[in-house]
Specification:
The complex is a heterodimer of chains A (about 210) and B (about 475). Chain A has 6 helices and 10 strands; from the N terminus they run ββββαββαβαααβαββ. In chain A, α4 packs antiparallel against α5. Chain A starts with a strand and ends with a strand. Chain B is α+β, with helices and mostly antiparallel strands and about 475 residues long. In chain B, the strands form 2 sheets. Chain B has a 6-stranded mixed barrel. In chain B, strands 2-10 form a two-stranded antiparallel sheet. In chain B, α2 crosses α15 and α2 runs antiparallel to α16. The two termini of chain B are about 30 Å apart. Classes of the chains: A alpha/beta (about 210), B alpha+beta (about 475). The interface between A and B is medium-sized, with 30 and 25 residues.
Chain lengths: ~210, ~475
């Protein structure tokens, strides 16, 4: 469950963004749509604890996360939220397997190897796990991004413009894949995007407008 | 643990830069390590070689030269001192013990030291085999001498005049090896011990010049000539080093020498002598007695041990002011020497620290460059839940590990360098310890601090990474 209430963030002296209240139930899949500069990424960062709101509250699964300290927020994010970025970011010095299990290690959780194998199989990346990031294609990297976001068994996955660089075929494949896998693992999904192609698989949309 | 693995993987990802950083630190730390060991080995060697000697008395000249020649056997002696003068010192109530030293010859570069058994006792030397030299021309070999020359108990050899390996040989006087010392890691390992009388005998002008001398001296029967004897008196004297044998041109002719030899042979065969031969024999005998007496009056130097600390203030001054000899305190002279050597060591140490400073700058530049290129990775790690402090720690860990690797390598390379130095400086008998010196632990500490300082700026940058801003830039 994600609930926001009267969320405001101030930036650049006198500027601020006032977000509409959001309410997402457990396991639901939503798109966060809006033009550039409406604060899609900012809202995702607020929900993930990367940013702290100037006022208002954010409640995820019963925890008011804006009341947590920075260190607690880092830990909360590591254990409860899976992130997918616009570009596929990996630690270049690590193998894909080590990149995949990195969130588990950083969160201090016990590695569930069976779950990692299951995820790898579901996403078709088992044969690629010993490769380095630069050895993979964009699509392969994206599948690893999805797997990494799920590896800690988070309750929420927040994705920021994941389909912006994908063609129609790959976009559909991505949307099918993430939607299916989030359904299977009962994970709440919120995708910030201005890409209308995703609405086929994820019809629920929160529209952000410039205020 | 995960941070450590991550730090290692990031260092391994750029092997050239990492290796360069490690090598630079290693060079700096190795130089400092070698200097530390060298300093320690020198100090230890000096302490062992001094063997508690409080004062060295010898002929006037350079006090440092006197100490180096007498205690360390590393320089030419300043001259000889008379036994009559030595007697006065021996009887001084401030003096507990004296050890005479008579130098003059060497065997394959190892000095033949005429002394008494107190000398070996002072170095706490023990026999490895055989027995101590007791009679004239018997010798006890230092451990290194036996190992290097291959001489064994029962072997004989003749000394070479002076301190150079090649030169005028006293072939007519053979030393007999009666004992070999255990290794003591002091100067006694590298000397050949004999009685003072052996040195006197070998350098007695008569015995030296009569027969079996080196080719230049074969014609030299000048020892029968009283006048010429004075010129030869220096034969038991260090001035004889480099002595030009050409002076033997004014010696008496070979005929007289042969006659003397014949007479001596007749005497040893208990044959009857003619009146002329008897006169010749008497002259020769008288000459021998006189020469032996005069040679016996001098030694090279005297090692003095004080009876009480008061002696340190009065005895050297008394000797320097009221005798023809000089007294030199090993402690004072060596302090002076170490102060001089210290300038060189200090310069090298400064150079090594400059290298380390450059290594730190290199590390700083390398890590900053890498961080600029991989700032998104830091943002990723932060987004995945690594705390700001852990991001800072990750960079500091990399700096520390790099320095740690360099330190381990420097420990290994220092020992390899020291082994090479030891192999090439056998004559100085420096023995280096393989254990890690306290200074090397401190070096590790300093290096870690430097490594951390070099990594601090990139680490702070990582700490302050604005992930929202960076992820927005994607």
């Amino acid at each position: 469950m994600i609930l926001t209430n009267n969320l405001i963030i101030n930036y650049k002296a006198n500027r601020s963004i006032h977000f509409n209240d959001v309410s997402i139930k457990k396991g639901e899949q939503w798109l966060l749509k809006g033009d550039s500069g409406t604060g899609k990424t900012t809202l995702l960062h607020l929900l993930s604890g990367i940013l702290l709101p100037s006022s208002g509250t954010i409640e995820i699964n019963g925890s008011v996360i804006n009341e947590l300290s920075r260190a607690q927020l880092d830990k909360y994010r590591a254990q409860n939220i899976g992130l997918i970025f616009q570009k596929n970011l990996f630690v270049s010095s690590l193998s894909m397997y080590n990149n995949l299990i990195l969130p588990v290690k950083l969160a201090g959780n016990t590695l569930d190897k069976a779950f990692v194998n299951q995820l790898s199989d579901e996403l078709g990346i088992t044969k690629l796990i010993h490769k380095r990031p630069h050895e993979l294609s964009q699509g392969e990297q994206q599948r690893f991004s999805i797997a990494r976001a799920l590896v800690n068994k988070p309750s929420v996955i927040l994705a920021d413009e994941p389909s912006s660089s994908l063609d129609d075929t790959n976009c559909k494949r991505f949307a099918d894949m993430i939607s299916t896998i989030c359904d299977r693992h009962e994970v709440t999904l919120l995708i910030a995007t201005h890409d209308g192609r995703l609405e086929v698989q994820i019809p629920k949309v929160i529209n952000l407008n410039r205020q | 643990m995960e941070l450590l693995k991550l730090a290692i993987s990031q260092l391994r990802a750029r092997p050239f830069n990492t290796l360069l950083g490690i090598v630079m630190f290693t060079i700096g730390m190795s130089i400092i390590g070698v200097l530390m060991h060298f300093d320690k080995a020198t100090q230890r060697r000096i302490e062992q070689d001094l063997a508690g000697v409080d004062l060295v008395v010898g002929a006037k000249g350079s006090p440092l030269q006197l100490i180096l020649s007498t205690v360390f056997h590393a320089d030419y002696p300043t001259g000889n001192i008379s036994l009559a003068e030595v007697e006065k010192i021996t009887k001084n109530p401030l003096v507990k013990k004296v050890i005479p030293i008579a130098l003059g010859d060497n065997y394959k570069g190892y000095r033949i030291v005429g002394t008494n058994h107190e000398y070996a006792k002072a170095y706490e030397a023990d026999l490895q085999e055989g027995h101590w030299n007791e009679k004239v021309m018997e010798v006890t070999l230092g451990h290194a001498v036996a190992a290097s020359t291959g001489l064994k108990v029962g072997d004989s050899f003749s000394g070479v005049h002076g301190f150079m390996e090649h030169g005028h040989s006293h072939a007519q006087h053979l030393y007999l090896v009666t004992g070999i010392l255990k290794e003591s890691n002091s100067v006694i390992d590298r000397v050949i011990l004999t009685g003072v009388e052996s040195v006197w005998l070998v350098h007695s002008p008569n015995t030296e010049c009569n027969h079996e001398h080196s080719s230049e001296h074969e014609h030299c029967d000048h020892c029968l000539d009283q006048e010429h004897k004075d010129e030869h008196a220096h034969c038991n004297h260090e001035a004889h080093q480099g002595h030009d044998e050409a002076h033997c041109d004014h010696c008496a002719d070979n005929k007289a020498e042969l006659t003397t030899q014949k007479v001596l042979e007749k005497v040893s065969n208990k044959q009857e002598l003619s009146e002329e031969e008897m006169q010749l024999f008497n002259r020769h005998k008288g000459q021998l007695t006189q020469v032996r007496h005069e040679a016996g009056e001098e030694i090279t130097s005297l090692l003095v041990f004080y009876n009480n600390p008061m002696a340190a203030t009065t005895l050297p001054r008394m000797i320097n002011q009221s005798t023809q000899m000089q007294a030199a305190s090993p402690a004072l002279e060596l302090n002076r020497l170490m102060a001089l050597l210290g300038i060189g060591i200090k310069t090298l140490t400064i150079l090594a620290w400059i290298i380390i400073a450059f290594s730190a700058i290199n590390l700083l530049v390398y890590m900053l460059n890498r961080l600029n290129q991989e700032l998104f990775e830091v943002a990723l790690l932060r987004a995945l839940g690594i705390s700001r402090f852990k991001a800072l720690l990750l960079l500091l860990l990399q700096g520390t590990m790099l320095v740690l690797c360099a330190w381990v390598l420097s420990i290994v390379s220092t020992r390899s360098l020291l082994a090479t130095i030891a192999d090439n400086t056998n004559q100085f008998g420096l023995s280096f310890s393989n254990s890690i010196l306290t200074g090397e632990w401190y070096l590790l500490l300093y290096a870690i601090v430097i490594g951390c300082l070099a990594a601090l700026i990139p680490a702070i940058k990582a700490y302050n990474t604005n992930i929202h801003y960076l992820l927005n830039k994607l």
